[in-house]
TrEMBL record:
It comes from the Bacteria. This is Imidazolonepropionase. InterPro entries: Amidohydro-rel, HutI, Metal-dep_hydrolase_composite, Metal_Hydrolase. It catalyses: 4-imidazolone-5-propanoate + H2O = N-formimidoyl-L-glutamate. Pathway: Amino-acid degradation; L-histidine degradation into L-glutamate; N-formimidoyl-L-glutamate from L-histidine: step 3/3.
Length: 413
């Protein structure tokens, strides 16, 4: 496939740039008035229209992208899209002013989702998640991580992870699976935390490892959920089975979650709506990626993470959706990028880099995804005609994507 007359080819990072730290996020290389050649699902070559070689310009399969930009697909490294039911009954409680913790205590929250998921069949869950994922792809997402964590029993956690495996087999994008049984304590373990951790460590993890159902391990490390010591136990047990951590950290309070994650060599710490100087110091000396989820802050009405301080401290910041029925009922990465700019004061270049190359890095796939680089997979989107790249986050809530290309082929859903 040949695409010509492209207004701007966005995100041309070099092959050896696998993650962007701090000030590197400012730089989003763009080639104006360009052509792009895709072959066998890969980015084969690109250049300026003025010097397009004649053997290329004569190619038959040809799209003209006049006035349009081509971006690398969004890489959404944090979602919970396998769930049985939406939770809009909590929406009214939220509007009345109830907090996330109060809603959970009143029978809403994660345990509510777990109850519904336990009753749902694998087919029903696959059906629901497929509808969500298709919609996300049409909104420009070309790689995704999906967590378990609404099962909370061995049977249901495995059911969720099998659904994720089916999604991996069915969709033409890379999908990473994360085991998140340590999401909330089931009611029967309310006063027996160690009992549930033993279940995770001695029963769930060996089966999941045996079936190779997960790539990562996650814990919701938070007051009222999993303590730092409990998190440490779960992460270490995951490590024994080769699962690296991606941790829900500092969403509602500064808890020591970042420290325990870094000690366990986490790939990413996610959320960080709450942070302090110590959090930043801990991350300075680590390779751990800081994944920020601004649509969760938007929906819950909690603070937005301090992206500017993280970038100033030379940290690698990524952006993701957190799509889930409780705190973020949206998988739209375009909106995440807009919020990154509008609410977290990231520049468009920073937000776009954070949602592409650094998102890919937070799933360990940035060698093949996350930028327009010769040899990488051709997972891209073509925008509508736009005056500049900043127009995409600026025109929040509007859809600027016209064509989605996955593995070099147009995706229509
Ligand atoms: O990332 N914080 C924990 N997990 C999800 C919310 C889960 C839920 O409310 O169902 C999150 O925000
Ligand atoms: Fe989450």
């Amino acid at each position: 496939m040949l695409i010509t007359n492209i207004k701007g080819l966005v995100g041309l990072h070099s092959k050896d740039k696998l993650v962007l730290r701090g000030g590197e996020l400012d730089y989003l290389p763009i080639l104006e008035n360009a052509w792009l050649l895709i072959e066998n699902g890969l980015i084969k070559d690109f250049g300026e229209m003025d010097s397009i070689p004649s053997h290329i310009s004569n190619l038959a399969s040809h799209i003209s992208a006049e006035g349009r930009y081509i971006f690398p697909s969004w890489c959404d490294s944090h979602t919970h899209i396998v769930f049985a039911a939406s939770r809009e009954e909590e929406f009214a409680m939220k509007i009345q002013g109830k907090s996330y913790e109060e809603i959970a205590a009143a029978g809403g929250g994660i345990l509510n989702s777990a109850d519904k998921l336990q009753k749902a069949s694998e087919d029903e869950l696959f059906e629901g998640a497929s509808i969500r994922l298709k919609q996300m792809i049409l909104q420009g997402t070309g790689a995704v991580e999906i967590k378990s964590g609404y099962g909370l029993t061995t049977e249901s956690e495995i059911k969720m992870l099998r659904v994720i495996r089916r999604l991996k087999d069915h969709f033409p994008i890379p999908i990473k699976a994360t085991f998140l049984a340590a999401h909330a304590y089931p009611a029967e373990f309310k006063n027996n935390h160690q009992g549930y951790i033993d279940l995770i460590v001695n029963e769930m993890l060996p089966q999941i490892a045996e079936e190779k159902l997960a790539d990562y391990i996650d814990v919701f490390c938070e007051k009222g959920f999993f303590s730092v010591e409990e998190t440490d136990q779960v992460l270490k047990a995951g490590g024994k089975h080769g699962l690296k951590p991606k941790v829900h950290a500092n969403q509602l309070s500064v808890s020591g979650a970042v420290e325990v994650s870094v000690q366990n060599k986490a790939i990413s710490v996610d959320h960080l709506e709450e942070s302090d100087e110590e959090t930043i110091q801990t991350l300075r000396n680590a390779d751990t990626i800081v994944t920020l989820l601004p649509s969760c802050s938007f929906y819950l009405g909690i603070p937005f993470a301090d992206a500017k301080s993280f970038i100033k401290a030379d940290l690698p910041v990524a952006l993701a959706t957190d799509y889930n029925p409780g705190s973020t009922p949206s998988g739209n990465m375009n909106f995440v990028v807009s919020l990154g700019c509008i609410k977290m004061k990231m520049f468009p270049e920073q937000a776009i880099n954070a949602a592409t190359l650094n998102g890919a890095a937070a799933m360990e796939i940035s060698e093949n995804y996350g930028s327009i680089t010769v040899g990488k997979k051709a997972n891209l989107f073509i925008t509508k005609p736009m005056p500049s790249i900043a127009y995409l986050p600026y025109s929040f809530g509007e859809m600027q994507i016209e064509t989605v290309i996955l593995n070099g082929e147009i995706y229509n859903g």
